[in-house]
Amino acid sequence: MIVTKNHAWIMLRLLFVLLFTGLLFYVFIWVFKATYPFWLAAILVWMFYPLIRLLRQRLRLPNTLAVIVTLLLSISALLGALTGIIFLIVIGVRHLSQFIPQWIESTSREVQSFFNETLFPFWQGLTGAFDTLSPEQQDAVGTGITTLGTRLAESFTEGGQGFTEALRSIVIFVPTSIVVIVFVFIAFYFIGKDWERIFGYMYQKTPAVFMKKSKAFKTMFQYRVFGFIRAQVVLMLIASLIVLIGLAILQVENAVTIAFIVGIAEILPYLGSGTILIPWMIYMFLTGSIGMGIGLAVVYAVTVLVRQSIEPKVLSTSMNLNALAVLIALFAGFQLFGVAGVFLGPFLLVIFVILKDIGVMNDLLRFVRYGFVDEKEEKEIVIRPK
C-alpha cells in the first residue's frame, strides 16, 4: 500500500479529533466537579421551566414570583417524597419490631444448639486426635493455628478500619450534601429568573449550526432519558410481581408490602432485590426453616435470571437502542467503572447514539476524510461506506 500525502493528512486529522475529544471530556469532568450544583440547578430549571411559563401566562404572575412559586413547589415535592419514604420506613420498622425479639431468641437457640451438638463434639474429637500426634506434628499444628489467628486479627483490623472510614465518609457527606442542596436551590432561583436572557445570550453567541445540533440533541436526549426511566419502572414492576407470586406461594404474610419494597430495592445497582432477600434467606437457614430458605433462594434466583435476561431488551425497546449494544454497554461499564458503570455504560451509549443520529459523527468523519470544506464543496461530498 502506497501512503500518499492525503493519507498522512487523514491520519493527522484523526489524531487531532481523538486528542481534542479526550481533552474536551477531561475539561468537562473537571468543570463539572467544580460547579456541579449549578449544573444540577440548570437541569432542574430546564425540567420545571414549562411550569414557570404556565404560571406566567395563565396566572399572570411576574417572572420572579413564578420562579419562587416553582421553587417552593419543587421543595414541597421533595419534602413530600422524603416524608413518604420515612413513613414507609417507620411502618416497616414498627412491623419488624414485633418479630425481631422472637427472631433473636430463636436464632440464639439455634446457634447454641449448633455449638452444643456440632462444634463442641467436633472440638473434642480434634483434641483427642491432637494428643495422639508426635511433638513435631503438634508444633506444626500450633504454628499453623498461630498464623491463622494472626491473619484473622489482621482481617478484623482492616475491617474495623474500613468501617471507621465509612463512618467518617458519612459524617463528611451529610453536611456537604446540605451545603450542595442550599447552593442548588439558590442557583435555581437566579438561573430560573434569568433563564430566557441566559438562553438568548447563548443563542446569539453560538453559531447557527451548533444551535441546530443542540436542539436536535435536546429532543433526542429527552426521548431516551424518559425511555430509560420508563424501562427502570418496568423492571421494578416485573421484579415486584415475581417476588409477590413467590411469596404468595410460600404463604408469607404482608406479601404485597414486601414485594413493593423489594421492587424499590431493584433500583440499587448490582445488589437489587438481594439487599432484602439474601439476609432474609440466610436468617431462615440459621433458624432451621430450611424450606422457607430454599423457597426464598428460588425466588431470588428467578428474579435475578428474569431481570438479567430481559433488561437489555427492555432498555433497548424503551430507548430505541440495539439490545446487543446495551448488553455490551452494561458489561463494559461494570468492568470499567464498577457498580456506577451499570448506569454510566448505557448513558455513554445513549450519548454516542444521539451524536450519531443528529449527524455529529458523520460531520467528524467528513472532517477526517476531507478536512474543512465550504458549503459548495460540502454539497458535492458524499461519504460512501467501504
Shape: extended
Number of helices: 13
Overall structural domain count: 3
Rg over CA atoms, rounded to whole Å, is 30 Å
Could you tell me the mean pLDDT? 77
Task: Report the end-to-end length measured between terminal Cα atoms.
Answer: 16 Å
Report the order of strands and helices: HHHHHHHHHHHHH
Largest beta-sheet characterization = none
- List segments where confidence is low: pLDDT < 50 over at least 5 consecutive residues: 381-386
Strand content: under 5%
Helix content: over 70%
The secondary-structure class comes to mainly alpha
Number of strands: 0
Provide an overview of this structure.
- With 386 residues, this protein is mostly helical.
- It folds into 3 domains: 1-98 and 172-203, no CATH class; 105-132; 206-386, no CATH class.
- Helices cover 87% and strands 0% of the residues.
- It has 13 helices and no strands.
- Helix 6 (208-249) crosses helix 11 (341-357), helix 9 crosses helix 10 and helix 10 packs across helix 11 (341-357).
- Residues 381-386 have low confidence and may be disordered.
